[in-house]
Design goal:
Layout (H helix, E strand, L loop, with lengths): L7 E5 L3 H13 L3 E5 L2 H10 L4 E5 L5 H12 L8 E5 L5 H9 L4 E3 L4 H21 L1
Parallel strand pairs: 1-2, 1-3, 3-4, 4-5
Length: 134
């Protein structure tokens, strides 16, 4: 993609190696990335620069993460920012339905890189079209 800015993505990943992998994959696709390891750091990064997408690598036992996703979806200043959850395993059906109903898509690891990139593009692209139409 060679220098084409496609959008800013905030990645929340606790594992440093996986974080670097996400960062490298997304940078190759032309995105700028802010990488954080914890929800608290992500919250501060979000206040400094609004991303076009939040990718949250999350285990469903992470109650603080669930509360943060709920906060993002229900706060006026952040409700419009798309969130993509990357999970080691899909959550219990009730939680899955609740997150899907809130417009929070999930992708399960391991994932196909092309499918991952399509997911990201589909979440960012509608917003780019709206901005470009103005």
């Amino acid at each position: 993609m060679g220098g084409l800015r496609r959008g800013h993505i905030l990645v929340v990943e606790e594992d440093p190696d996986l974080g670097r992998l996400f960062e490298a994959m997304l940078a190759m696709e032309g995105y700028t990335i802010t990488l954080t390891r914890h929800v608290q750091d992500a919250h501060r990064a979000l206040a400094q620069q609004e991303p076009d997408l939040v990718i949250f690598d999350w285990s469903f036992s992470n109650v603080a993460g669930y509360a943060w996703i709920d906060e993002l979806r229900t706060t006026t200043q952040t409700a419009h920012i798309p969130v993509l959850l990357v999970c080691g395993a899909l959550p219990p059906r009730g939680m899955y339905e609740m997150l899907a109903g809130a417009g929070v898509p999930m992708i399960e690891k391991p994932f196909d890189l092309l499918a991952f990139n399509r997911h990201i593009a589909s979440l960012i692209q509608p917003r780019e079209r709206i901005i470009g139409a103005a």
